[in-house]
Every structure is written in structure tokens, then in C-alpha cells.
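One record is kept unedited as follows:
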Amino acid sequence: MEIKILGVGCAKCIALEKSVREAVEEAGINAEVKKVTDIGEIMEYEVMMTPALVINNKVKSTGKILTMEEIKKMLQDLNPEVKK
């Protein structure tokens, strides 16, 4: 699973990255988590607000900080073997 956090480094972007990394660890899944700060790459996803969360090349959220539980729910929906 590939997870990207899109954002240039604002406080919300940093908070989302932290929540994503914690959710991935707690869920016990094998995922590559990348922080994308390049504006050109962010624009490829047609995102108008950051932070944005992209899972397996699909934008799942924009403009808000998701809780760890919201992120884990998304991961579970994509992979039923994810720990609850």
C-alpha cells in the first residue's frame, strides 16, 4: 500500500503525517508513507487544499486533519486484514 501526504509543510500537513504514521503502525500494515512537498507533484492530483491524503494514487481527503481512527477506517476499508 502506498500512502502520500500532500502539503508544503504547514502545521496541518505535519499533524496529518503524524496521524497517518501512527495509524499505519497501530494497524500493523505494510505501507510506504511518503510526504510530498513539490507543488508540481501536488497539482498532478488536482488538489485545491492541503493537507491531502492519497492512498494507492486515489485522493481520500483534502483540507483537513483526519484523526487516527478515521485513517484506520480508510485503511480497513481497503484491506480487511487491518487490525481494528
In short: The first helix runs from residue 11 to 27.
